[in-house]
Design a protein that fits this description.
about 230 residues; Ribulose 1,5 Bisphosphate Carboxylase/Oxygenase; four-stranded antiparallel sheet; 9 strands
């Protein structure tokens, strides 16, 4: 059942048109009429086969204006690194105690950082953290001895992205309450990072389609030509 609010928002959108980023964000903000501050998200279809290891696209980018979300950071660390994580403002720090809580179903956190020496312990949580996209990974900077920097980057608006089985990447670029200019800058940063992450084995058109939407709003197709220079 489609609600009146969604129908009204959809009526603003020309489904046949490919919008500039500025136009799409302006429309998305107008359409966001819910009582909560909706997220603004990009969905990008890439010309890759994620089943091939050399065509897996993943990475991180620090949004210039943050995500607008309060992120709860959990750090697996011991000794000096435990203290460093606490001093840097981590919400939860520990080792075996946290692993045990998570195995019992506790999930009061949004992202996980771990020091390399403790990854054997964290690896046992793969079945829990993996499907949620929370497993620490050296490639995304979440397996590191520099836990203070990892926490700082996350707090500053660092987002991770990873291509899904269908070749689509979903990335948040802020909140509907953000100024249009801030959402544009965040979105351009994300698109630039995705373009630079193009695997050398990817043949044909890499950036196939892109759309922008709010949590409860319709998708707006984007003109992908406007992003080509961001790969340079």
């Amino acid at each position: 059942m489609v609600g009146k609010r969604y129908k009204a928002a959809a009526a603003m959108v020309d489904q046949a048109k490919e919008y500039s980023l500025e136009e799409a964000i302006g429309l998305a903000k107008k359409a966001a009429k819910t009582k909560f501050d909706e997220s603004v998200d990009l969905a990008v279809k890439l010309g890759v086969d994620p089943k091939q290891a050399d065509q897996m696209v993943r990475g991180t980018v620090v949004l210039p204006h943050g995500t607008g979300k309060t992120v709860r950071v959990l750090v697996f660390a011991k000794g000096e690194k435990d203290k460093e994580a606490r001093d840097a403002g981590a919400d939860h720090v520990g080792a075996e105690d946290l692993a045990e809580k998570i195995q019992k179903g506790w999930m009061e956190f949004d992202t996980v950082v771990a020091t390399p020496d403790i990854m054997a312990l964290v690896g046992k949580l793969g079945k829990v953290l993996g499907p949620r996209g929370m497993m620490p990974n050296p490639k995304t900077g979440t397996v590191t001895f520099d836990v203070a920097k990892a926490i700082k980057d996350i707090r500053a608006g660092k987002v991770e992205y990873r291509v899904e089985k269908a070749g689509i990447v979903h990335v948040p670029v802020g909140k509907a309450s953000f100024d249009e200019s801030k959402l544009v800058e965040n979105a351009r940063s994300v698109m630039g990072s995705i373009l630079k992450a193009k695997p050398s084995s990817s043949k044909g058109k890499y950036l196939q389609t892109a759309s922008l939407s709010t949590t409860m709003g319709p998708g707006l197709k984007l003109d992908t030509d406007q992003f080509e220079t961001l790969a340079e």
